[in-house]
Amino acid sequence: MRHLTLREALASRQLDAFVREQQDNGTELVAGSELERGLALLITQRRILVAKGVSAIKQRCSHRGRSDWNLRRPLSASGIASAAKWLWSSNAD
Description:
This protein is mostly helical and 93 residues long. The chain has one domain (6-91). The chain is 66% helix and 0% strand. The protein has 4 helices and no strands. It has helices spanning 6-11, 15-24, 34-63, 77-91.
C-alpha cells in the first residue's frame, strides 16, 4: 500500500486511514506533526458529525412531540456512539 499524505487523506476523506497508517508506522505524536494535524482534523470532523446527529435526533423528537431532551448535559460515550450510528444510517439512505 502506498504512503498516504495528509493532503491526500483530506482530499479523499480518508483521515482515519491516514491516522491509522501513521500509528502503524510508529510515528511519534509531536506538536506540529502531520499526525497531530490529522488527529485534530479527524476529531473535529467526528465532533461535527455527532453534533449534527444530536441536532437531527432532537429535531426528530420534537416533531414527534417529545420534549424530554436535555442536551445541556454532556452525552455519554454510548450516547455519542448511538448518535453517530443513527446519523450514518440516515445518511446512507
